[in-house]
């Protein structure tokens, strides 16, 4: 994968896959307070996500992936992404309201590196995104496969 | 934050782990000053005697003689001055119940000690800004690193 290194680019391209419109708006609002220039694109379910990633658009620098989505859930998308040569290096941050350890371990085994339990306040979400972005965007050479849980 | 020196205390009784931590911290791209104390009583004594220059971050091992990391955490959180220090708990095991209790007692970050040098460098590198962000905000978000 030859994505341009986000550290040097001016804008971090973020793709959010989430069917909940309120959560998408909440995320968008939080991004405005993160002191990094970002460009957000949202898709509303797993099938649309996979179509988008398969399409002609440039890949995002990082994907925030909600787990509970109609048509194709986040877990299925993650598994497909990690099986796909073109997509497997895309940094994926899993995003969910649930806090089940078994579920997290399964996601980690499937290749997720960061699991975020959705925050209730805007301030928390801003802080989470601010802390998650540099970790997700670490160059692949420093990818030591550490697993992180945010808002545990 | 990147221009000023970051004062870090490591409380750990295991000499090998201390060396391992010291070497990893040296590779983190940030100017740091590390103080090492080898048990919980020494830690509390050090904090009380240096209450005018408290550390920016405390890395606190759980299993220590004389006073363990959990007791230190509890004492710190009951103290007006010490309770503001971001605390990163270190442990070899990652038992869920234990982590929950540490978070409830006020710990900010839980790190399961990595086995490799590279992973330790990376996890410290990631823990520093996270710990700092918790000390500057009302949000006390809990993080598990190397889950």
Structure report:
The complex is a heterodimer of chains A (152) and B (147). Chain A has 152 residues and is of the alpha/beta class. Chain A has helices at 21-33, 46-54, 74-83, 101-110, 122-136; strands spanning 12-17, 38-43, 62-66, 92-96, 114-117, 148-150. In chain A, strands 2-1-3-4-5-6 form a 6-stranded parallel beta sheet, sandwiched between helices. Chain A starts with 11 loop residues before the first strand and ends with a strand. The model of chain A has no long low-confidence stretch (mean pLDDT 90). Chain B is of the alpha/beta class and 147 residues long. Chain B is built from 5 helices and 6 strands, in the order βαβαβαβαβαβ. Chain B has helices at 15-27, 40-49, 69-77, 96-104, 117-135, and strands spanning 6-11, 32-37, 57-61, 87-91, 109-112, 143-145. A 6-stranded parallel beta sheet of chain B has the order 2-1-3-4-5-6, sandwiched between helices. At the A-B interface, helix 4, helix 5 and strand 6 of A face helix 4, helix 5 and strand 6 of B. Strand 6 of chain A pairs antiparallel with strand 6 of chain B, so a sheet runs across the interface.
The end-to-end span of chain B amounts to 27 Å
Structure class of chain A: alpha/beta
The number of strands of chain A is 6
Largest sheet, strands/sense/barrel of chain B: 6 strands, parallel
Low-confidence stretches of chain A: none
- Oligomerization: heterodimer
Outline type of chain A? globular
**Helix/strand structural class of chain B:** alpha/beta
Uncertain runs of chain B = none
SS strand fraction of chain A:
15-25%
What amount of the residues of chain B lies in strands? 15-25%
Radius of gyration of chain B: 14 Å
Mean pLDDT of chain A: 90
What's the mean pLDDT score of chain B? 93
Helical residues, percent of chain B: 40-55%
Distance between the termini of chain A: 31 Å
Order of helices and strands of chain A: EHEHEHEHEHE
